[in-house]
Amino acid sequence: MGAALFVCFMLMREYMQVPRSPRRMYIFEKPVSMGILPENPRDDVSKMEVQLPFKRCTELPIPDSYWNLAQDTPAFVSIPQTTDIEIDESICVRVVVPAKTTQMPLKFAPFPGAPWDSILLDLIGQNTNISVPVPLEKTDHTSNFYRDKVHIYEADVVLRDVDVYRPQGYIEYRHAMWNAEGFLDPQPFNPERLIIRPDLQITVTDNEQLSPYSLHKYLDMPLCTEPNADGRWIPIERLPFDPQQVPPPDSHGLVWLPYKCRLQRIAYTDFAKCLAQKYPVVHWYGDSNTRRALKKVATLGKWCVDNPDSLVCKCNDNMEPFSEYGANHRLSAFDLDPEAGTTSMADPFSALPATKPRIVTFKWDGLTTRNAPPWADYFIPNFEQKLGHPMLAILGMTNWDTAFETHAFFANEADRLTDKINTTYALSNNQPPTDIVLRTGQYYCCTSDMDPYWKRRYSRLRNHYFDKTLIETFKNKLGHERRVMVWDVARITERRPYNLRRNDVLTCEANHVRSQLVEIENQVLMNALCNS
After folding, report:
1. Distance between CA atoms of residues 345 and 340, nearest Å
2. What number of other Cβ atoms are within 10 A of residue 180's Cβ?
3. Residue 10 has what pLDDT?
4. What percent of the chain has pLDDT over 90?
5. Distance CA 500, CA 253 (A)
6. Which of 324-328, 401-405, 504-508 is least confident?
7. Residue 121's closest CA among 64, 192, 189?
8. CA distances for 264 relative to 225, 237, 319, 378, 487, angstroms
9. Would you list the DSSP string of 123-176?
10. Which end of the chain is more exposed for a tag (fewer CB within 10 A), N or C?
């Protein structure tokens, strides 16, 4: 009780030291400018008026007292400047995590540059229910490098929707227990409460009614040409236009709308025509999440439309009979006929059709040692002569890698993969360069995999850092000569309301998303490929 009261005192102390709402500062009961002095010092300073600027975290000092907080002081959220902000402005959010006296598991350690503590924190719109993740990073203080010291994390969060936002979240793990490397087992999920003052909130306004993110202006946006645009989930009944003009909703009636570009609803027959023109040969690598995406493509969108609440469509399609292509085969292929609106299974080594796009599929268990045969063995001599030169290669990795391999092993295999891609899909004057799409791993949160057999080492931060490693490796090694795109399916799920994120993971041990969300993920990809 005493520790909690002390935290409240410290928060109120910081609260009193920083200008509050309303956005204007008042002196002598009149609006006063901040940072501008009168030309004549004798002029009445109360006659001046200037808006109080919002500040980034680097401009807002951390109170020294925070670094000296006693052990077992409850962790808390701090927003040092709760000034009302306008659309597209950012707000500084911090989390202060004092040390605890509990026994520390010394075998766990974060990746270089990663935090000791895994903290899930969102800013939640109280009227719209829009969730904005807070991408916390370690502050530049030596205390953050030690396991048993006070840790402080911060982020500048840009808010683009008019609403009143309140923080919501918890500590997922301390002491790097989110990172079960090597022979360490995943740890039980036991979230720790964060103290969040009831009055801690941010109001985002659009006083001039000029927001480019207004739903009424959405159809005026340029079409999306990248598959990683940030966005938000909007109830379909709030759309001020025909919902048929955007991708369909998820199972809760929510529509995914990017902020700075527009998604159109693309029929799979039109996608087939797009592939025939731009990407007549596609090589598509991935695991069971990729399989679910391909089932939508191979059936031209019909998969799971009639029975979306079945187990196959909600979670696990592993044993589902499927005739359009060898969905569980390590190597398979199918051809799309955009004119007839049909698909047909194909021998991946057969001659390429003249007018139909072909998708060659490779079912991999990430870059893990569990692949049989090893993943590198697929890159056989004369690979392109036998399987065709792809104008597009889609690679869905990291799900199995996060679960079963160490980060060091994965980083080495990712480096090997870029070399294999670069030599197999060699640049030449006779063929256009192969575009690369990297599909992130699925988002994971709010639980841990305690299955005694699988012992999958998933965690939200661990998944994030494996994705980050893959993306940086490909962009650094291949991005200067090829187009490397990131199909960020993790972001799409991370932006969902917290209760939906949690329920999706808890109700599907395979961490597959429902078929409606598979459709939305595919629409994001199809827009990026066909609008550019």
Report:
1. 15
2. 24
3. 53
4. 83
5. 12
6. 504-508
7. 192
8. 11, 18, 33, 36, 17
9. EEETTT--EEE---EE-S-GGGGSTTS-EEEEEEEE--S-EEEEEEEEEEESTT
10. N
